[in-house]
Amino acid sequence: MTAQAAAPLQVLVIDADHARYQALLAEQAPDLRVLPGNCADTLAADAVACPVWLGQPDHVATLLRRGIAPRWLQSTWAGITPLLAADLPRDYRLSRAVGIFGPVMSEFVLCHLLAHTQQLQARQLAHQRGHWQGPAVTSLNGQCALIVGTGDIGQHLAAVLNSLGMRVLGVASSARSQAPFVEVGGLDALPQLASKADYLINLLPDTPATRDLYDAQLFACCKPGALFINAGRGSAVVDADLVQALEAGRLGGAVIDVCREEPPAPDHPFWQAPRLLLTGHTAAPTDPRRLVAVFLENLAAWQADKPLRGEVDFARGY
């Protein structure tokens, strides 16, 4: 008698871009049986049959609320806030998308730093008015950026800005020595470090310690004319306090990629605030090609019962 071949591992893909993930996995891991989580009639049965899920947290949360959970979920997002709701189970392994967003986030931030130094909005207005000479420009070289959140994304951004001759400071959960940052302080050092920064860049995840971090008191500590960029989570900012800081001329501008409510209500003050740009949660989209590489690396670790890259500690929230 011949030994019976083991059944292929079943993976459920629950993502708006499920077809792309299916194609990539079929090419790179043909031994897997990949099921798309796009059929409402079979979704629950497929979810029960698949021990491994690959998907976006908001879609996955609906299944978890129905009492169905995987043994391991690889999130296609860096943020996993929808999965941390108090009514959801936590008896499964969860890994965030890590190591893939540094380059694209750096491009986003650099784009807006350059737009600010080159006065692109004012130059466009001068063009529309038929004026040849616009305002004077400055260089990023020699200016100071404070990156709040020094994980893999912040680390990559720091290297990019450092290569342009910027002085780069950081804020992390605790003070540390971390190249190429000149200094990395804990969250308690944020007001003091913000007072030195020409550019204040938030990359923090949503945790109890990071909510309402950017309030009137913090903005009052900022260097006058500083540009604030929030590409972390909307819950970190007290919206009314940011608008007030802009209206008072305390800040030179704000680029807001993430909000507490997305999109903001039509009457939200962000729409009318001076020198504030909403970018519609586009700072770091997931590239399925890079995410599949992370998934396959973690799949091998999961099958060997080893630590996962980006594994979430539910108690910490990241």
TrEMBL record:
A Pfam family for this UniProt protein? 2-Hacid_dh_C
InterPro entries, from UniProt?
Answer: D-isomer_DH_NAD-bd (IPR006140), NAD(P)-bd_dom_sf (IPR036291)
Q: Note whether NAD occurs among the keywords.
A: yes
Database matches in Gene3D superfamilies: NAD(P)-binding Rossmann-like Domain (3.40.50.720)
Domain D-isomer specific 2-hydroxyacid dehydrogenase NAD-binding stretches: 112-283
For this protein, the record's CDD domains field holds:
2-Hacid_dh_1
Alphabetized UniProt keyword annotations: NAD, Oxidoreductase
* Keyword flag Lipoprotein: no
Name used for this protein in its record? Phosphoglycerate dehydrogenase
Q: What organism, scientifically named, is this protein from?
A: Pseudomonas cuatrocienegasensis
